[in-house]
Specification:
Radius of gyration: 23 Å
Number of strands: 7
Structural class: alpha/beta
Number of domains: 3
Number of helices: 14
Strand order of the largest sheet: 1-2-3-4-7
Helix content: 55-70%
Largest sheet: 5 strands, mixed
Distance between the termini: 51 Å
Strand content: 5-15%
């Protein structure tokens, strides 16, 4: 069964269909003449025979006449698995037959050891025919430090934070990642944040948390994430203490955002906030806290 990391990395390329061709052009100098559009293709490569061959993601680029220009098989690989090297040529030749155009194999891995293993040519016969995988390892993951660029492509910023979030440009990379996160929906924000946090060192993870704590908009996004997680856990486990903990965390988030914006609560308002256990109400207050000009807008 695919892991959370496998599916998360794959989702970056599913969500932004231009991510793969842009990285092919930048990192591997693959020309894409007349690129007009990208399409996701079926990744079931069982055209004939009883054996099933299913890849991770297949893409096709098309020119302005809607003719296929290049097919791309995207494979996320987290560990060395020699069986995959027997299957990858099947994916490529099947996609090539379907599209009637050149195809490439793009292997994505956050591991340097797996990248070194995957980049070895795949021999097809005894006379020198090979398939050369193009491997996007951590050293080829883009470095995104510009918040504007991250906002245009949060998926690229997520790849950057996974590989470089604990590196020499940690501050700029993590700040750009958070800026990109604000341009995504809640579902993708949660997924991307989990992916990056799991990949970071302890020091970098702590710095990411500090950046979110110090910025009201970011804190609002992460607090909303944990409230949603808490509601889900509460429904699944039926445990009142989970809901109480979520309510306490949410109330603290509201208070932190208001304090950071220079808005002080009266004693009565503090008591009202501390006594609230309605997660939906706390969620609404947190959203209002980011833009409110006075505390009465929340508790009036």
């Amino acid at each position: 069964m695919p892991s959370h990391l496998h599916e998360g990395l794959l989702d970056l390329f599913r969500t932004d269909l231009l991510l793969a061709p842009s990285l092919l052009a930048e990192e591997f100098r693959i020309p894409l003449p007349g690129l007009s559009q990208m399409r996701a293709e079926p990744c079931d490569f069982t055209d004939v025979g009883p054996k099933e061959f299913r890849g991770d993601l297949a893409l096709s680029t098309h020119d302005d006449r809607d003719l296929p220009v290049l097919g791309v098989c995207v494979e996320v690989q987290l560990s060395k698995a020699d069986a995959r090297r027997w299957k990858w040529p099947v994916y490529l030749t099947t996609l090539r037959s379907r599209l009637c155009c050149p195809v490439v194999l793009l292997v994505v891995t956050p591991s340097r050891a797996v990248a070194k293993w995957a980049e070895q040519p795949i021999e097809l016969d005894t006379v020198g025919s090979v398939i050369q995988p193009l491997v996007l390892g951590p050293d080829r993951f883009p470095v995104v430090t510009d918040p504007t660029e991250a906002g245009r492509c949060p998926e690229r910023a997520t790849l950057s934070a996974i590989a470089h979030g604990a590196g020499p440009h940690m501050e700029e990379v993590l700040a750009a990642f958070l800026a990109g996160l604000m341009k995504t929906d809640d579902e993708h924000a949660k997924m991307y944040l989990d992916l990056v946090d799991d990949a970071l060192s302890v020091v970098a993870s702590r710095r990411l948390e500090e950046l979110m704590e110090s910025t009201p908009q970011y804190r609002g996004r992460i607090a909303t994430k944990y409230m949603a997680k808490g509601r889900e856990e509460g429904r699944a486990e039926g445990r009142a203490e989970v809901q109480a903990k979520v309510a306490e965390t949410a109330a603290h988030a509201v208070l932190t955002v208001l304090t950071a914006r220079g808005l002080e609560l009266s004693a009565a308002q503090r008591a009202q906030l501390a006594g609230c256990t309605d997660i939906d109400q706390l969620d609404a207050w947190l959203t209002q806290a980011v833009t409110a000009t006075g505390t009465d807008e929340l508790f009036g």
